[in-house]
Amino acid sequence: MELNQWVDELFEVFDEDKDGVINRSEFVELIDCLLQDKGIRMCESIFKRFDKNHDNSISKEELREMVIELAL
Ligand SMILES: [Ca+2]
Ligand SMILES: [Ca+2]
């Protein structure tokens, strides 16, 4: 599947309140589902690392960069 399409679907699934961004509690779910296998657990530093513009939420663009960086 093409990367952008996959990111779209991921975003759709994890943006539970459909406000167009992944907030902290949604991000916890995402980490639990996708990244526990990689030994990554939700913590402040990982959220900050991927919240590049520091607006306390993960945009689709930030999620895409995360997917690329972690080679999911
Ligand atoms: Ca949301
Ligand atoms: Ca952000």
UniProtKB/TrEMBL annotation:
Superkingdom assignment: Bacteria
Domain EF-hand span(s) in chain numbering: 2-37, 38-72
Single Gene Ontology MF annotation: calcium ion binding
Name the record gives this protein: EF-hand domain-containing protein
Source species of the chain: Thalassotalea marina
Lineage per the UniProt record: Bacteria, Pseudomonadati, Pseudomonadota, Gammaproteobacteria, Alteromonadales
